[in-house]
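Question: what's this shape?

___
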Amino acid sequence: MNEQIDTLFLKIIAGELPSFKIYEDQYTYAFLAAHPNSVGHTLVIPKKYSRNIYDTDPETLGHIMNTVSLVATHLRDVLACDGMNIYQNNEVAGFQAVFHIHFHLIPRYTGDGFAHFPINESLIAQLPDIHKKLQML
């Protein structure tokens, strides 16, 4: 089977697998994460398949981001969380586990113990060289 037909998320959208749906519109679907990091940890996915950020067309990405904003605000208002992490992983090296683009909305609470990204101190001195290499002119 090809990747598009076989994705877990397309099966959820089609109702072939259960989910705890939070929101749905013509373009997107938001549901509680099966393996949550926090109360209200929600995934937002497009109904139109793309593997990850590298092959998602701008229109679909716009629809996703509209839903991310809407659902993040809803989670904040209902759960009274103190903050929100929004993650999007790409490819195995970037910890992508389901190869259908998705965003994690993780409500945060002061003192919840959820770890954040470590800082690589050795890169600070390299910032000018990295900047020169990456500038998009």
The mean pLDDT is 92. The CA atoms of residues 29 and 45 lie 5 Å apart. The longest strand covers residues 103-108.
